[in-house]
Design brief:
Blueprint: H1 10-16, H2 18-37, H3 42-51, H4 56-66, H5 71-81, H6 88-96, H7 105-108, H8 114-125, H9 132-156, H10 165-170, H11 174-184, H12 192-208, H13 211-227
Length: about 240
Amino acid sequence: MTDDLLPSRFTDGLLAGLPIVLGYFPIAFAFGVAATGQGLGPLEAVGLSVIIYAGAAQFLALALITSGAPMLVAAFTLIAMNLRHVLYGPALMKRAGPAVRRRYAWAWAFGLTDEVFGAALGQLARGRRFSEAFMFGLGLAAYASWVLGTAVGAFAGGGALAGWPVVEAALGFMLPALFLALLLSILTRAQIPVIAVAVVATVLISLLISATAGILAGMVAGALAGVLGLGGRDAG
């Protein structure tokens, strides 16, 4: 049955990453503009995207840095916000199967953002064979667009979006909208228990502690439920 699977070359990964590229570039552009507007140099703004590469967390990092927050506080805040990424690799490997090659997982796993993870799961659900070459292509497309978008925004300057407040506000919704679209494309009945666990954890912790803690709890609980196989297997 494996002969019927779609090929997974490096170029296939690049092509599969095009929807992410279209979503990442304008958001990264907005980050570059915001970073230089807050007093960072263009190279410093690009450096944040090259090293941190964490989407919404970079906007939080920018706010923490410019507000004078201690470096340890900023570091631990970003780690907590992105803790869910630790679970993406095991969840993806579980979906791909135990026989897949993972020799270079230490390298391509760096590119497992929310959207890359969702796109990879979507490709597997549609009959794509898992390969590390494909993951490198998918991750590189997303990473390059984020860094390039940041660079263009940073060198455009902090006032590049000053005349377009509606556009600037709308860019904040693009990342969650893109991730939601990727998830909805692979949603099946078998995954409803995992979603239910994430929703319950989010609501409960938000009511007991705070909305920030609730979001983090929901992400971790949902990822753990997926890794533990709560959602079961799809038919076929």
